[in-house]
Design goal:
- Strands 1-2-5-3-4 form a five-stranded mixed β-sheet.
- By secondary structure, the chain is α+β, with helices and mostly antiparallel strands.
- It folds into two domains: 66 residues; 156 residues, OmpA-like domain (60s Ribosomal Protein L30, Chain: A, 2-Layer Sandwich), CATH 3.30.1330.60.
Length: 264
């Protein structure tokens, strides 16, 4: 006797149903492999365009690295469809952890530098700002130079030496910037605040270079005169803050060792 069900060769989209199975369950079309493949491809393309959108902005590099890492992990969890960096390549999360470690070390050094500044008269306006892109130290010009002078004062040497220890233990490019208030300054050598601020920045650079412990190509100097104030020049307190030397470590800091004041 022939089966009551036709051979599957005549109906490729239907399955023969065992006598014990309800028709409502077994008489359903087979799953189409093309649908699964299309869905997987759609998810991959969606993740790809999300990643492109995130990388289109030059800001928040750490967020971009974290996003790339999470996408890599997500694809690996569904069968390794996406092969990210190998074990010998630093992942976004690994780089972020390293950055946090370096930042912690640098903060400890800077805290010690801040503590030193609190014991020295004339350094009350010292400040620093550290981001993933740079470290910026602000040193009052009134502490570093005598009024109207461009020669680094001897009282500033110990403080500059502590900063130099940080320079020695990094590989960053270091830019030294001179700034003034808006009061005009003229003598036979310097006809403007631009020239005065540039001369002071160069002399701080020379103080560091004279130690012959850091390659000279890592240093640069710039004078901005009164054109990059950090406070209003209407009052003496603001003018005092604007008279400053900025020491800028360009880029994220490399790993630092030891502690400030203990030598290399």
């Amino acid at each position: 006797m022939r089966s009551r069900f036709q051979s599957s060769s005549f109906h490729p989209s239907w399955q023969a149903c065992p006598s014990s199975s309800p028709r409502s369950i077994c008489n359903k079309p087979r799953g189409d492999g093309n649908v699964v493949m299309f869905t997987s491809l759609s998810l991959i393309l969606l993740a790809f365009f999300i990643l492109l959108y995130a990388l289109s902005s030059p800001k928040n590099k750490e967020k971009q690295q974290e996003l790339a890492y999470e996408i890599k992990q997500a694809f690996q969890s569904i069968g390794g469809l996406f092969s990210g960096p190998g074990d010998d390549v630093e992942t976004g999360r690994g780089r972020q952890e390293k950055t946090l470690e370096v930042s912690s070390q640098a903060e400890a050094l800077l805290s010690e530098l801040q503590g030193y500044s609190e014991t020295e008269e004339g350094l009350e306006e010292f400040s620093y700002e550290m981001t993933s892109e740079e470290l910026r130290l602000q040193i009052p010009t009134d502490f570093t130079f005598d009024a109207g002078n461009i020669v680094v004062s001897k009282k500033a040497h110990p403080f500059l030496d502590k900063i130099f220890e940080m320079i020695v233990r990094t590989e960053n490019q270091v830019r030294i910037e001179g700034h003034t208030d808006d009061l005009s300054f003229r003598n036979t050598k310097y006809q403007s605040n631009w020239e005065l601020s540039a001369a002071r920045a160069i002399n701080v650079l020379r103080y560091f270079v004279a130690k012959k412990e850091v390659p000279e190509h890592r240093f640069s100097a710039a004078g901005y005169g009164e054109y990059q104030p950090v406070a209003s020049n209407r009052f003496s307190e603001g003018r005092s803050r604007n008279r400053r030397i900025t020491i800028l470590f360009i880029g994220g800091l490399k790993p630092l060792g030891g502690s400030l004041g203990t030598g290399k």
